[in-house]
Amino acid sequence: MPYNNISADLSTADLNEIKAALATIEQKLPFLVNLTADERRRLYKMGDKSLAFVSNSLTAAQNNPEILPASFDTAELARDYQLATVLSELRLNLRQVTEKVDDTLLAVGSEAMTSSLSVYDYVKAAAKRQPGLKAVAAQLGERFKSMRQKTDKTEVMAEARP
User: Fold this and answer.
1) How confident is the model at residue 144 (pLDDT cuts 50, 70, 90)?
2) Are 90 and 74 in contact (CB under 8 A)?
3) Which of 33, 65, 117, 155 is least enclosed, having the fewest CB within 10 Å?
4) CA 149 to chain centre
5) What is the DSSP string of the chain?
6) Distance between CA atoms of 54 and 44, rounded to whole angstroms?
7) Residue 21: is its pLDDT beyond 70?
8) Which residues of 108-147 are buried (b: 16+ CB within 10 A; e: fewer)?
9) pLDDT band with cut points at 50, 70 and 90 for residue 158
10) What is the pLDDT of residues 53-95, one digit of tens each?
């Protein structure tokens, strides 16, 4: 769908249903974990090629159980492989939704900022002739205060260079 200006509302009831659906997803996946950065670094990463490797390893283990030690749990390998396959599919679906949410948030945020910048320009212009708007203009201008300070410092540094 081509991008057009977004004009939509999300009702409280719909938002609550979406949050409930997300909660249901988490409830249906009680085994999900949160890893530390160090744990993430130390673990093997399984992409598409590795998924095929695990599949082939599982087939080899199932077809040749006599070569494996008695302590090797082929059934657990099969469960891990099956869950990895399902989670990979689920992750793709979730990423597609997340990408749409991210893109929509970017677009609607840009629309809101563009309109807000127009309001700010109107307020600044009106503050010169209408009492009571200078405080509003100053409040709105706070958003750009750090940007102005950085620009001022850059200009001072550029002027100081020979």
Assistant:
1) confident
2) no
3) 33
4) 30
5) -----------HHHHHHHHHHHHHHHHH-TT-----HHHHHHSPP--HHHHHHHHHHHHHHHH-GGGS-TT--HHHHHHHHHHHHHHHHHHHHHHHHHHHHHHHHHHHHHHHHHHHHHHHHHHHHHHTTSTT-HHHHHHHHGGGHHHHHHHHHHHHHHHH--
6) 12
7) yes
8) eeeeeeeeeeeebeebbeebeeeeebeeebeebeeeeeee
9) low
10) 999 999 999 999 999 999 999 999 999 999 999 999 999 999 9
| Residue 108 · residue 6 · CB < 8 Å | yes
Task: Identify the residue whose tokens are 């990979």.
Answer: 88
Q: Say which amino acid occupies 140.
A: L
Q: Considering just the CA atoms, what is the radius of gyration of the chain in Å? A: 28
Amino acid 12 reads T
Instruction: Give per-residue pLDDT as tens, 49-58.
Output: 899 999 999 9
